[in-house]
Amino acid sequence: MAKVYTRTGDQGETSLYSGERVPKCCPRIDAYGTVDELQASLGLARAFVSHESVGEVLYELQRSLVHAMAEMATLGGEARIRAEEVEGLEQTIDKFSALVPSGFSFQVPGESAGSAALHVARTVARRCERVILASIDEGLATSATLAFFNRISDLCYVLARYEDEAKEEER
Fold first, then answer.
1. Which residue, 14, 106, 116, 171, shows the most beta carbons closer than 10 Å to its own?
2. Each residue's pLDDT tens digit, 96-137
3. Cα 52 to Cα 7, 15, 34, 114, 145, distances in angstroms
4. Residues in Cβ contact with 96 at an 8 Å cutoff, skipping those fewer than 6 apart
5. What EC number(s) does its UniProt record assign (predicted)?
6. Which residue segments constitute the domains of the chain, with CATH numbers given?
């Protein structure tokens, strides 16, 4: 394996896709670093969920986040998160919502490992949305990008409920 360290970030700077050097604490780096954290959280949830269909949804979502991070790292480029992606998430939310009892309820995470991991991912998605919104003046996000991250947290909530319902049926 090649060396994974470059020493180029040792002074608190990193490179964007364009090669431009920026401080690691700049809002753009914070935003796509938080998206990277969300992607890892979704991977953890995928490792714990009990339904193959949920794992497939999470995998596709992780792939979408790669595009979101690329968009954030290359401002001025083509928007990769569009209304179609938001609509796709809404369709998935509706599909799984139909499989759980209707109505909103606050959840206490921990009924199952998969559900608990999905709740962690949900809270990271909420933080992503806040961090991206805080850096909106830098042109970091479109309205579709903000809606996309809002729907991710909704999707994680519904999937966590779905995981818990399945756990309840096993009892």
1. 116
2. 999 988 766 667 777 899 999 999 999 999 999 999 888 777
3. 41, 38, 26, 12, 27
4. 54, 57, 155, 158, 159, 162
5. 2.5.1.17
6. 20-98+111-165 (1.20.1200.10)
